[in-house]
Design brief:
This protein is mostly helical and 323 residues long. 82% of the residues lie in helices and 1% in strands.
Length: 323
């Protein structure tokens, strides 16, 4: 019994194996599995692509992926240009706003304009007073220069006396230095004399009138007129002063040509004073002493210094008002 069952089972297995073998052969021949609900459906194997086909497929895939990325992500230039454009627009707007605010702040208000106008009105009397004080100050400078001329004349004498001592000791080089210093001091003496001061004031008035400086030209003319009592004139003091007043009027009226004519007449009225001649003679004697030392002529140099000292002494007494 068992043997019969075993044989039946073996027979059944063989039959099933034969059926399966026949079905598989039909499936491979037809290219599809048999119509059986119990059979597992396996798709057919695709043919392997060639080298050219695989390269084309890869290039298409790469192009599609790049296009997708290009559409989804912005480029670097777009990313950089957008903030720059925004910053430029912001900067221009900020600068324009700041310039408008600065322009509005620089505009004077009505109160500030009123204060400026009031300050100008208040400064007019001060300016007139300052111009008047300028004329007085220039006149005082002339008087101070006369006093300084007397002091410089004493300095000339001290240099001459010291140079004489050095020449007596045959110290010619040191004596030469002192003589040169005496010449410079003598030039200051001449510049401080009233007649020279009057001429210099008129020269200054001519220059200021040419430049249109009314206040400065007026001050210079007034200073020249104030020296009239101390200088020698070709004519009267009243005439000199009258021409000075007329010149001031012409300067203020804006007629420099007429003012120059009047100032030239004033200048021609001034006569070089004896003090001016004396100061010039002092300088001549000092230059003679230097020339003698250049020739190693000590005795002539000493003689020139002696004459210069005598004239310096007399001029000092005149400038100091000593008879």
């Amino acid at each position: 019994m068992r043997r019969a069952l075993w044989i039946a089972a073996l027979t059944t297995a063989l039959v099933a194996a034969l059926l399966a073998t026949v079905g598989c052969e039909e499936w491979y021949k037809a290219g599809k599995p048999p119509e059986d609900a119990t059979t597992v459906s396996i798709p057919p194997r695709l043919p392997a692509p060639t080298g050219m086909e695989s390269a084309a497929v890869e290039s298409e895939i790469t192009a599609e992926s790049a296009a997708v990325e290009g559409e989804s992500a912005p480029t670097e230039s777009e990313v950089e240009s957008e903030p720059a454009a925004e910053s430029d627009a912001t900067t221009e707007s900020d600068v324009a706003a700041e310039s408008d605010v600065a322009a509005e702040s620089e505009l004077p208000t009505e109160s500030e304009e009123t204060e400026v106008a009031q300050a100008d009105e208040d400064d007019e009397p001060a300016a007139e007073e300052e111009r008047a004080e300028g004329g007085i100050a220039l006149t005082q400078v002339v008087a101070m220069n006369v006093k300084q001329a007397a002091v410089d004349c004493r300095v000339v004498r001290s240099h001459i006396e010291a140079a004489q001592v050095l020449l007596a000791n045959r110290e010619d080089a040191e004596a030469r230095v002192l003589i040169q210093q005496a010449i410079r001091s003598a030039a200051f003496v001449r510049a401080g004399l009233p007649s020279v001061q009057a001429e210099q004031c008129i020269e200054r008035a001519l220059q200021e009138a040419e430049r249109g400086q009314v206040s400065a030209a007026t001050d210079a003319i007034e200073a020249a007129v104030d020296t009239a009592a101390e200088i020698t004139l070709r004519g009267t003091v009243a005439e000199f002063r009258r021409r000075g007043a007329q010149a001031i009027e012409q300067v203020r009226d804006g007629d420099p040509a007429r003012a120059r004519e009047l100032l030239g007449r004033m200048q021609n009225m001034i006569v070089p004073s004896e003090s001016e001649y004396t100061a010039s003679r002092i300088s001549d004697h000092l230059m003679g002493a230097l020339s003698a030392l250049d020739r190693d002529a000590v005795r002539p140099a000493v003689a020139e210094l002696t004459d210069a000292d005598e004239k310096a002494f007399s001029l000092t007494r005149i400038l100091e008002g000593v008879n």
